[in-house]
Amino acid sequence: MVEKVYGVGVGVGDEKLLTLKALEVLKKVNKVFVPISKKGKKSIAYEIVKDYIKDKDVEELLFPMIKDKEKLKEYWNDALKKILNEDGEVAIITIGDPTLYSTFSYIWKLLKENGINVEIINGISSIFASASALNIPLVEGDEKLCILPQGKDLEKYIDEFDTIIVMKTKNLKEALSKIKNKDDYIIGLVKRVTFDDEKVAIGKFDELNFDEFNDYLSLAIIKKVKK
Amino acid sequence: MVEKVYGVGVGVGDEKLLTLKALEVLKKVNKVFVPISKKGKKSIAYEIVKDYIKDKDVEELLFPMIKDKEKLKEYWNDALKKILNEDGEVAIITIGDPTLYSTFSYIWKLLKENGINVEIINGISSIFASASALNIPLVEGDEKLCILPQGKDLEKYIDEFDTIIVMKTKNLKEALSKIKNKDDYIIGLVKRVTFDDEKVAIGKFDELNFDEFNDYLSLAIIKKVKK
């Protein structure tokens, strides 16, 4: 039976954004599990680390992007069974950081419920890598920050937080169109940060071509213009 | 004159949480600048990376923790002068990630204003490392998250966000005491995450001994109990 499961964040795209600890763990485990959302579809997390784990035993775990919770539970339980059947230490890789909107969190919960020793290896998150790509800080001093998936409640918080991150949507334009007084805000858009096809833009709402950012691996960083 | 300045996040304490890229940059630059808050006081960022940069030319930059903005500007301008006087590429190290409440952001702004090429090398932030230490996710699915320095406006947002992080204070108890209906929330406290003297606790407000967490490198992660 499995002794320990590492939840390893592999960062955002650039394979050099892996931590030394993540690399050490991937080298030492008996198997690396790779979550995929569809059979035959490439795993982004695997693409990031594949050069480091060439001789490693790798197995896919299928977590389809469906809403039906009962159906999803079947997939999680299948994954759990596969993991429990391993010997010694194994790793499950995930893009970004395993604690922030990660598919890993579902299987993490199940592993804990089953008394399995889980250790999280943090990874660089897209929220930080995107601020770097835009060459701006997320927050300074005593500023407040919030993350709103799909721009949920954006109109409510737009003037209360110094920085707002909108992520987890393919349609940033729609998510941000709720903003009134659009000229009062500077918006940074980043798509597929640190990948070869990374795209970055910064400006006011009407100056931006949102069409280039219709990708699930996109996010927006919104800041009020200081007057 | 200096050609390029790297703002390098060195993570939270464990030297293995450095990224491969950060290590590569620290090895190649001509000089590593180390921010300190007081003359003679050890730099935490330097302590994290010192074994990697034994033969490196290292220079301190003094950024005292004072409120007087005019006085602070003098220190920043002194630091800027030192950096501009270097040749080739240099690095400035900072704990955590350089985009989140970093001392680096002040000098970053000055460097940009002076037309200097700046590249940010992201680091593991305490917000992620603390969630790992607590063995809980920060946010899942479509949950909303906010970061409130010193617990600013905590009473306003406590029931609107799924997860609230309070940081940048030595007195978490005072910052969190504003919460009404304290039994409705699970609070995770983490001090000096991944350091040898790391401390972790999780529970309801009245179950926690806040005295053990009176440290600037502490934070609280607050979640509503799901009923």
UniProtKB/TrEMBL annotation, chains A, B:
Query: What superkingdom does the record give?
Result: Archaea
Specify the Tetrapyrrole methylase domain's residue ranges: 4-208
InterPro entries in the record: 4pyrrol_Mease, 4pyrrol_Methylase_sf, 4pyrrole_Mease_sub1, 4pyrrole_Mease_sub2, CobI/CbiL, CobI/CbiL/CobIJ_dom, Uropor_MeTrfase_CS
Which UniProt keywords are listed?
Answer: Cobalamin biosynthesis, Methyltransferase, S-adenosyl-L-methionine, Transferase
Which GO molecular function annotation, any one, does this entry have?
precorrin-2 C20-methyltransferase activity
Keyword match Iron-sulfur: no
What is one Gene Ontology biological process annotated in the Swiss-Prot or TrEMBL record?
Answer: cobalamin biosynthetic process
Q: In which pathway does it act?
A: Cofactor biosynthesis; adenosylcobalamin biosynthesis
- State its Enzyme Commission number(s): 2.1.1.151
Please indicate if the UniProt record lists Methyltransferase as a keyword.
yes
UniProt family annotation: Belongs to the precorrin methyltransferase family.
Q: Which PANTHER family match?
A: COBALT-PRECORRIN-2 C(20)-METHYLTRANSFERASE
Question: What is the designated name of this protein?
Answer: Putative cobalt-precorrin-2 C(20)-methyltransferase
**Species this protein is from:** Methanocaldococcus lauensis
Q: Which gene encodes it?
A: cbiL
